[in-house]
Amino acid sequence: MSPRSARLARLSRSVTFSACHRLHSKSLSDEENLKLFGKCNNPNGHGHNYKVIVTVRGEIDPVSGMVMNLTDLKEFMQEAIMEPLDHKNLDKDVPYFSEVVSTTENVAVFIWDNLQKLLPQGILYKVEVHETEQNVVVYKGEQTIVK
Question: What single string gives the DSSP state of each residue in 67-125?
Fold first, then answer.
């Protein structure tokens, strides 16, 4: 491969935010919610220090040597993740979660959708949300076909 051949790379950046939520589905009775979500269905909620790793993918620019300027990625993550989610009650402060259960899976989808609006088309590769050290969700924008 010559030095001028395009090279693909993945670039990741992480942020940490704190938020509280209550796992509760309006589609289920109180008893069903308690059975499904257990202590995470506490009426007063509970909190996490979430870690989010965003990975973008693209060609390494031959002039800058970068897939993307990290300063730009940092600003996009501030707008898409930190501003709407940090130190918030996800269920009460974030309109998206008024109708969607605030599971880590849905937090990952929310972040993905927000980033897609800001990042250059096609560059977002994955969003990884660590709810705890043991619980991690990876979302790559994949959808299933409605049956």
Answer: SS-HHHHHHHHIIIIIHHHTTEEHHHH-GGGGTS---HHHHHHHHHHHHHHHSPTT-EE
Contact 59, 122 (CB under 8 A): no
- The reported pTM is 0.93
Active site residue 40: yes
- Per annotation, catalytic residue among 40, 75, 128, 133: 40
- With cut-offs at 50, 70 and 90, classify the pLDDT of residue 4: low
What H or E segment, with its residue span, contains residue 62? none
Quick: pLDDT tens for 48-64.
999 999 999 999 999 99
Residue set of the binding site: 21, 46, 48
**Catalytic hit among 24, 128, 130, 131:** 131
The active-site residue, picked from 59, 75, 83, 87, is 87
131 in active site: yes
Going by the annotation, the residues of the binding site for Zn(2+) are: 21, 46, 48
The domains found in the chain, sorted by start residue, are: 8-139 (3.30.479.10)
Using the predicted structure, report yes or no on whether residue 139 has a pLDDT greater than 90.
yes
Residue 143's pLDDT is 83
